[in-house]
Amino acid sequence: MNGRWTAPASVLGGLALGAAVVPAADYVGTDVPWAIALVAGLVAGALLAIWLGTPATDPLPPEDERPPGPDSNAGLGDLGVLVFTLDGASRDPERFETRVRPQLARLAVDRIWHARGLDWHTPEGRAAAEQVVGPHTRALLTAPPGSLRLTPQALSDWTEELEQL
Predict the structure, then answer these.
(1) Cα Rg of the chain, angstroms
(2) Alpha helices for 2-98 (secondary structure H)
(3) Among 34, 59, 83, 162, which has the highest number of CB atoms less than 10 A from its own CB?
(4) How far apart are CA 99 and CA 103, in angstroms?
(5) Chain-centre distance for alpha carbon 45
(6) Phi then psi for 30, rounded to 5 degrees?
(7) 74-82: long-range contacts (C-beta < 8 A, 24 or more apart)?
(8) Quick one: pLDDT at residue 41?
């Protein structure tokens, strides 16, 4: 049924049901006033129309609608965890790639967003951010896995570039 006619059809169906109750009640031997039966049928039809008109799930937001900035768990809140993993990651490249580099990358993306208002997750924002970040931060965000090593100098370079944003 067309959505345009769902509500009127439901209300009229409820009204017809209410009208059918009076003869059915008379047949059984019960006296139901017409006014009560019609109002009850009208209310039932209106409730059915409301129920049919309510979507089953929330509508999806438009694709171009993005929340402002990176995720709430990104970047600055992870600094405490980062301190504890640096020592082990400096000796183990796999640990650096799986634990430290993702946190440093989230920190860099978060810092780029807060300092410059650039969203690394969009192509336009990424192109603009690559122009303002230093070479070490760019490498942190774009280098293939396994190509970077955690050294005190590299950590210092990343920290300086992020502070200069």
Answers:
(1) 32
(2) 3-28, 34-53, 79-91, 93-95
(3) 162
(4) 7
(5) 36
(6) -115, 140
(7) 74/106, 74/107, 74/109, 74/110, 75/106, 75/107, 75/108, 75/109, 75/110, 75/111, 76/107, 76/110, 78/103, 78/106, 78/107, 79/107, 82/107
(8) 85
Written as tens digits, the pLDDT of the chain (165 aa) is 556 777 788 888 888 888 888 888 888 888 888 888 888 888 988 888 888 877 666 666 666 655 555 555 555 555 666 566 676 677 778 888 887 788 888 888 998 888 888 888 889 988 998 888 888 888 888 888 888 888 878 888 888 888 887
Helix axes 34-53, 3-28, angle to 10 degrees: 150
Give the span between the Cα atoms of 75 and 97, in whole angstroms. Answer: 16
Predicted pLDDT at 93: 80
Those residues whose C-beta lies under 8 Å from the C-beta of residue 8, and which sit 6 or more positions away, are 49
The tokens for 87 are: 């020592």
